[in-house]
Amino acid sequence: MPELPEVETYIRELRPQLAGKRVVAGEVKWPRIIATPEPALFTELIRDRRFDTFGRRGKYMLLGLDSGETLIVHLRMTGEVRIHPASVLPDKHTHLLLTLDSNERLHYRDPRKFGRLWLVDDPESVVGKLGPEPLDEGFTPEGFASRLAGRTASIKALLLNQSIVAGVGNIYADEALFLARIDPRRSGGELSMPQVSVLHAAVRAVLQAGIEGRGSSLQSYAPPSGEKGSFQENHKVFRRTDLPCYQCGAAIRRIVLAQRSTHFCPQCQS
DNA sequence: ATAAGGCCCTGACCGC
DNA sequence: TGCGGTCAGGGCCTTA
């Protein structure tokens, strides 16, 4: 579900809700949700830790604890973090509960159980393989071009590859390709340098706009405050199959690329 | 090293 | 109402 703008919104909203609070107890209800360490050790290690720093890398949330360790959370498709009063009971999709010293509990909820949490000393052990942060200085047109060079896979598939650039998912990949007027089926390695530059700027622009809209809220997704994001109102192609392109009026097409639904304007994007 | 496909899971939705 | 099929914003693992 969440991509970079949604995860960034998550971190911004979790910070005021969690900062300085201490974990009194942890309860893991679905062990596979904890990637590392073993669930028993996880609950032992997180007890008495205070939430201290709040960061993001790609689609991963980095919750720094006062012990120096980091609780890493990836929501994947349907993960959800909420801070509720202690009186709120977990539902059947709640897989982790952290009791806080504020008479509240952190609920990790995830109907599809794809999300994962890690408790580690060094976050790099989890996020070290990611490509550059697209909104940082380190993401340059030249660096982007060198990562695409020689690749035969579609540019859509390559945008979804987190080791090329971190944080782009299905929505923002389609939106960036539309903004850059590039056909998602083109192979990444055959794009010209000007096209790579335009796409680089487009990726940054759609992610920045996504953050400003506090993310896209499709279906039931909402950030921790419960107040939905608005960027879905600005989608130009995503889930607009058969609707007219805002640029040229042609019908937006939906195809499958890299096993993911892909939306584009057959007229504007080549 | 790269690319393609399966797989992990459950719920919502659609047509019959 | 029930049933089967499809779809869902992700990424790891295996295979070729």
In short:
The chain has 270 residues and is α+β, with helices and mostly antiparallel strands. Helix content is 26%, strand content 23%. The protein binds a DNA duplex (16 and 16 nucleotides) through residues 1-3, 6, 32, 59, 74-78, 93, 110-116, 150-153, 157, 160, 162, 169-172, 216, 218-219, 221, 238, 258-261.
Plain-language structure description:
- With 270 residues, the protein is α+β, with helices and mostly antiparallel strands.
- It has 2 domains: 4-127, N-terminal domain of MutM-like DNA repair proteins, CATH 3.20.190.10; 141-264, Helicase, Ruva Protein, domain 3 (Orthogonal Bundle), CATH 1.10.8.50.
- The chain has 7 helices and 11 strands.
- It has a 5-stranded mixed beta sheet with strand order 2-9-5-4-3. Strands 1-7-8-6 form a 4-stranded antiparallel beta sheet. The chain has a two-stranded antiparallel sheet with strand order 10-11.
- Strand 10 (253-257) and strand 11 (260-264) form a beta hairpin.
- The longest helix is centred in the C-terminal third of the chain and has 20 residues, at 193-212.
- The protein is elongated and about 55 Å long.
- It starts with a helix and ends in a 6-residue tail after the last strand.
- The mean pLDDT is 96.
- The structure holds a DNA duplex (16 and 16 nucleotides).
* Binned strand content: 15-25%
Q: Mind summarizing the main beta sheet?
A: 5 strands, mixed
Shape descriptor reads elongated
Label the structural class.
Answer: alpha+beta
Identify the CATH architecture of the largest domain.
Answer: Alpha-Beta Barrel
Tell me the series of helices and strands, N- to C-terminal.
HEEHEEEEEEEHHHHHEE
CATH homology superfamily name of the largest domain: MutM-like, N-terminal
The strand order across the widest sheet is 2-9-5-4-3
Number of helices: 7
Mean pLDDT: 96
